Structures are given as C-alpha cells and as structure tokens.
Amino acid sequence: MVRERRTWLSMPARYLVILLVLAVTLAPILFCSWVASAALPAEHRPNSLPHPWVWGNYAAVITSSAFWQAVYNSALIAVVATGLAVTLGSMAAFALSRYTFRGREALYALFIAGLLFPLNTAALPLFLLLQQIGLNDSLLGVALPEAAFSLPFTILILRRSCAPSLASWRMPR
Fold first, then answer.
1. HEC sequence for the chain
2. pLDDT at 54 > cutoff 50
3. Residue 41 burial (C-beta neighbours within 10 Å; 0-12, 13-18, 19+)
4. Is the CA virtual torsion 119, 122, 123, 127 positive or negative?
5. Mean pLDDT value across residues 45-54
C-alpha cells in the first residue's frame, strides 16, 4: 500500500477549504436573518427567549397530568412503531440479502419505491382505512402507519448491513 506524502501545506489548505465552504453556506442564512430583523420594527422582532421568565408556567406544565399522559402516549407510540419497523424490516432485509429467488431485485425496488411515495397523498385513504377497521383515535392507529411508512428506509439500511455480516456465518451441520 502506497501512502501519499503530506506536505506541510496540506493541512492548512484543507482547513481553508472547509472554512470557505462554511462561509459560503452560512453567509446567505446570516444575511437573510439580518435583513429580516432590520426590516421589522423593534416591538415586532422575533425573540427566541421569553422576555419575562415566568417559572410558574413551567411548574404548571410539569405538574399537569395531561403533560405526562402525552409523554406516555408519545413514548408508547415510538416504542411500538420502532419495534415493528425493526422487526419486520430486519426479516425482510435478511431475506432480500441472503436468499436468491426470482424477482428479488424487483421486490427490493418496490420497497425502495416506497421512499418516493409522498405521505400527504396517503392521509385521506389512511384515515378512511383506519376508520373502517376501528383504529381511529387510538394509539395503535398512530403506531401502525408510522411503522409502515418507515419500513422502506429500514429495509434500505438493514439490507446492506445484513449482507456482509451474515455472509460469512455458517450453520453447523
């Protein structure tokens, strides 16, 4: 293996290129925020921090049962959706990476085409389907579509990770 020889100018040149790319990337954002803030009168300028800090509001939110119910619902939906997506996605990715069968690449392409499907177009049919099967206004009615829409990406990631790591593994005979 031949290793390239570094000159003493190579590292500063890399940092200069990185700083140049950073400046080109951040300059439009900073310019737009400066123009937007200068165009507004002082009383209408957006502020990211609350002006009078009212600590009682934070205490009221944290002590309310509605807040903790929302946290519980979100955590439960995340765990169920992630568990379903990883379980089903790993099974599909393993089959698509290890087994050879007719139509394997076409099936993989179909899963990948699912990444191109806009979620906005599925909102009304999904609502009607969930209404027909009685899952509207339920946590499972949120977790199942979340898992289903994350399956193509899960399969895309896991197929490549299943192939090399499991290719050398042999079952004892």
1. CCCCCCCCCHHHHHHHHHHHHHHHHHHHHHHHHHHHHHHCCHHHCCCCCCCCCCHHHHHHHHHCHHHHHHHHHHHHHHHHHHHHHHHHHHHHHHHHHHCCCCCHHHHHHHHHHHHHCCHHHHHHHHHHHHHHCCCCCCCHHHHHHHHHHHHHHHHHHHHHHHHHHHHCCCCCC
2. yes
3. exposed
4. negative
5. 73
Between CA 96 and CA 116 the distance in angstroms is 20
The residue type found at 67 is F
pTM of the model: 0.66
